[in-house]
Design goal:
Strand content: 25-35%
Shape: globular
CATH topology of the largest domain: Ribosomal Protein L22, Chain A
Order of helices and strands: EEHHHEEEEEHHHEEEE
CATH class of the largest domain: Alpha Beta
Strand order of the largest sheet: 7-11-10-9-8
Structural class: alpha+beta
Largest sheet: 5 strands, antiparallel
Number of domains: 2
Helix content: 25-40%
Oligomer: single chain
Length: 212
């Protein structure tokens, strides 16, 4: 079992992080799945993706849930049958889930040079505070992860990272910033937290009013 870390950002929220070190067969053992999940799993061509999918189910088990407690709405947003909010992410050898009484979004990304090439797709207002120093890749990865986290919170879909979501100035050492979604009728601020995990960046977003 590879529960890597548990984070409690507030009394309403718990984040569970899994480091994938097991084989596919080990992750599958004693893991009941819904028919929909079985279809999704068997349709994945990459064993890495299959392991990520199953490690998320392992995290559900750690949190006291089963695959049968998870369902998705019409926009592909995950939900739990008990009404709590959940957000899910996985990348290469890490996966994570966040469970909260309030809206929550989470993302984990491997720190890669590639992000410098695609930054024009998601960086807008933020280019005014990015410094091309030793943390350049990590800064860009935080911005991407923060926007992904806010995208996951917004219930209606259709946001663009570049035009509809802004992340405020930060330093990597801060491990926190704020962000907001710029759409009509949606006036909420969010606290963004982030940290580095073995060459990956974990980012999560919480409603400011719920962060006490």
């Amino acid at each position: 079992m590879s529960l890597f870390k548990t984070i409690k950002p507030n009394k309403h929220t718990t984040i569970y992080v899994w480091k994938i070190e097991e084989s596919l067969s080990d992750l599958s053992e004693n893991m009941p799945l819904t028919e929909r999940s079985k279809e999704r799993l068997f349709s994945m061509k990459s064993e890495l993706h299959q392991c990520g999918f199953l490690s998320v189910r392992q995290l559900l088990k750690v949190a006291g849930y089963a695959d049968f407690d998870l369902f998705y709405n019409g926009n592909g947003k995950p939900n739990l049958t008990d009404g709590k909010n959940i957000s899910i992410t996985h990348s290469f050898t890490f996966s994570a889930i966040a469970i909260s009484d309030a809206a929550i979004g989470i993302d984990i990304e491997k720190n890669r040079e590639k992000i410098k090439i695609i930054q024009h797709r998601f960086v807008n207002f933020e280019k005014g505070f990015i410094h091309k120093d030793d943390d350049y890749i990590e800064q860009l990865t935080v911005i991407w992860g923060a926007k992904e986290s806010l995208y996951k919170i917004y219930p209606f879909g259709g946001l663009t990272f570049k035009n509809d979501i802004d992340i405020n100035s930060f330093q990597i050492a801060d491990k926190k910033t704020t962000g907001y979604i710029k759409v009509e009728g949606w006036n909420k601020n969010y606290d963004i937290r982030f940290e580095q995990l073995d060459g990956f960046t974990l980012v999560y977003a919480l409603e400011t009013s719920e962060n006490e």
